[in-house]
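Researcher: Go.
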Amino acid sequence: MRRILGVVAVCAVGSSAFGQDVVPAYGGSTGGGGVIDSIVYDNSANTIGFLINGADTERGDGLVLDGTDREVTLLSVYIHSNGGDAIADIQARIYAGGDASGAEPCDLLWESDVLTQVTIFGGTTFYDFPVPNVVVPDEITWTLEMTNVTPVPGEVAGPRFIAPPVVGSSEDWVWTHDPRGAWIKNVYGVGAGNNSYGAYIEAVAGGTTSGCSSCAACACTYDPNGGTNCDIFDFLAFQNDFVNNAPCACEYDTTGGPNCDIFDFLAFQNDFVNGCP
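Model: Structure:
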């Protein structure tokens, strides 16, 4: 069974209405302007019988897309409830990086609305998130965050392990993005080569991007040790630059103006944790 979720927006958080229950043909959906979408990643065929508890956690999988179409129009995520129906608020995201290179995911490219009180059906279902032609690099990480989960007592709900992909590729690990902004690489005991969550992605031809930006390098200028990774945060140096409207510090101003007004701590923390590219 496949359930189409409501239309979502780029980097928007709010409620969203459900669409109708439909079963579209894979690879045959039509994007904007009548363009036929292509399958750039398909990990839906080889279910291996394991799932992970997704409650109150952002979990996801890094992958390498097939073909050359890179404007994503659909992300479909395989969610399993190990028992009866569960209820949860869910949100999907796409980040650059996080697979073949072994480096952590970096730039947030897109996030869905928070969809509230979604029924996670007993068994396994693909949940579709329409994506508004977001340009992505060859290597991306998708995530699913589930909150306010009310599963059947004694049961769990979350992403389902499926491997190997039949279109595209995925390395033998999955990711957890913890609330502090750190990325944790997980290898579970589900058998060699099976650490991949079920997902399906469609795209159309369009723009290109080289992947992770160099924004993290600016954060690393506030590491007194220098080098290619951020290890120690020199708060006084950053504070001085922020007060004096230094360009690097002002990259982390939420107002986006020429002066530093409001410090975007979460953005800085994410860049500092991910280090310099």
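Model: The mean pLDDT is 77.
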